Amino acid sequence: MENNQALSQYISDLVERVYGEELDDDAKSEARAEMYKAFMQLYNKRLVDKFSDDQLDKVEELAQQNRLDEISKLAYNNGINLTSLVVEVAQEFQRLYAPGLEDK
Predict the structure, then answer these.
(1) How many domains in the chain?
(2) What's the pTM?
(3) pLDDT in single tens digits along all 104 residues of the chain
(4) Which of 4, 43, 54, 81 has the fewest CB atoms within 10 Å, i.e. is most exposed?
């Protein structure tokens, strides 16, 4: 996934909005790591969902070989808009992990 700095900032902001003063810095660091991992799991699931059944074997092969950049290239070559996917996943993630924040 491109632009990990922006994603890290998004996760940090989300942790602050969810936990605020409730957690100390160490606990917030752990929360950021857990949220980042959860975000990436959801992102990867949604990315795989975008591929056709015919492409899933190739995607799985690339993932097992840890050739993640090639999965992104394959997605791009198949017309999958990764920027839009990140936005969609961020919105879904916030609804799942921080419901009610949109009201704050």
Answers:
(1) 1
(2) 0.84
(3) 556 788 999 999 999 998 888 999 999 999 999 999 999 999 999 999 999 999 999 999 998 999 988 999 999 999 999 999 999 999 999 999 887 766 54
(4) 54
